Backbone:
């Protein structure tokens, strides 16, 4: 009995250390423990239909447009600095022939148009979501966010925050390949 | 006076924060139907604002909290019951939006952990008290002081508590005593020695 009293706290402590280490070294979580898993993963993309930002910007798209091939949906805004930071990476994806769609989150038509003109428009189509109603259905907590959708229109991956070079190489591209194979 | 002013200030700040937190919900968000509005407020206090961690959407000024409040009202007007509204939002943002975690496999530890810990601690306490009692009953605990030891202790206490000369400070009296060395207790210098050692033996054998 006495031995149990000695061993139990040590075992509990060792267990706690084990849990902490596994949380800290977990591939998907080590960047930020506060990041949440999306309940959307493995489910069909939410139903939505967004109008174009402006006549000069190709766009307006809906859930139906996402079916038929693997695509990426990127939520962005002209006022969002990290969106500008990830813009080269999004453009690179589009340059490789990936179908990239943009959801323009809580923006103004002039500002969004000017931003796309100035930095380039990598998107096949941009949908205007200025009251953020569609963003709510996507479970967006802040811009930028990036989703991978498979050919059946099912969400397979979600990245919160800017797509950096590192994220592109180690997360987005491998997941994209995996989604394409499936 | 200063104290009164400080407390007055604190009270003012306290009520000011109460007022501002109550103002997170804008007048223009209110529904015309007071029953629906009351339900909306109640649901809102149970939903976490996803970008401000420990605030409910009812308390938060964040854009997304406002959007979620409007969404709650939209669903209510559409005829959803309270559970349907909550699961509508959970389907989009996950269980994290619930300020009160649900009872399901991944929260079993969360809910049962504290009661289990309380039981474990209670059991360990009882165990400790019982072993302590048993040890005393068996005689493994140090024996109570013998009359001789008691007398010696009393004389020591008296010597220390004795009024010192008003010219000498407390510190001086002790340093003088230390310099002199402790004299053997009055009366029975021989008897104390063996007594002490028997007590020690009793202790070490336990």
Residues:
């Amino acid at each position: 009995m006495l031995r149990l009293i000695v061993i139990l706290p040590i075992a509990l402590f060792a267990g706690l250390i084990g849990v902490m280490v596994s949380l800290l070294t977990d591939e998907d979580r080590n960047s930020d423990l506060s990041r949440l898993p999306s309940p959307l993963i493995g489910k069909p993309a939410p139903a939505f239909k967004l109008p174009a930002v402006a006549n000069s910007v190709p766009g307006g798209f809906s859930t139906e447009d996402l079916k038929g091939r693997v695509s990426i949906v990127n939520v962005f805004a002209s006022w969002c600095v990290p969106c500008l930071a990830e813009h080269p990476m999004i453009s690179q994806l589009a340059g490789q022939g990936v179908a990239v769609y943009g959801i323009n989150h809580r923006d103004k038509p002039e500002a969004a148009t000017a931003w796309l003109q100035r930095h380039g428009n990598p998107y096949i189509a941009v949908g205007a979501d200025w009251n953020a109603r569609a963003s709510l259905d996507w479970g967006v907590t802040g811009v930028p966010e990036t989703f991978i959708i498979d050919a059946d229109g099912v969400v397979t991956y979600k990245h919160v925050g800017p797509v950096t070079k590192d994220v592109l190489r180690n997360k987005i591209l491998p997941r994209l390949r995996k989604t394409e194979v499936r | 006076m200063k104290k009164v002013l400080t407390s007055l200030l604190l009270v003012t700040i306290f009520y000011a924060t109460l007022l501002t937190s109550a103002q997170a919900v804008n007048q223009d968000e209110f529904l015309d139907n007071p029953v629906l509005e009351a339900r909306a407020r109640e649901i809102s206090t149970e939903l976490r604002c996803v970008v401000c961690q420990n605030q409910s959407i009812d308390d938060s000024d964040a854009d997304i909290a406002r959007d979620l409040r409007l969404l709650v009202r939209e669903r209510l007007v559409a005829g959803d019951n309270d559970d349907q509204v909550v699961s509508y939002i959970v389907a989009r943002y996950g269980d994290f939006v619930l300020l009160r975690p649900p009872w399901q496999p991944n929260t079993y530890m969360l809910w049962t952990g504290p009661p289990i810990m309380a039981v474990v601690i209670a059991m360990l306490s009882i165990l400790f008290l019982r072993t302590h009692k048993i040890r005393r009953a068996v005689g493994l605990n140090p024996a109570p002081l013998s009359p001789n030891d008691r007398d010696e202790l009393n004389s020591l206490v008296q010597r220390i508590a004795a009024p010192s000369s008003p010219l000498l400070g407390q510190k001086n009296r002790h340093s003088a005593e230390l310099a002199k060395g402790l004299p053997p207790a009055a009366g029975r210098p021989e008897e104390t020695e063996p007594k002490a050692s028997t007590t020690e033996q009793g202790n070490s054998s336990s």
Notes: The interface with chain B takes residues 1, 5, 34, 36-40, 46, 106, 131-133, 136-139, 141-142 of chain A (CB under 8 Å).
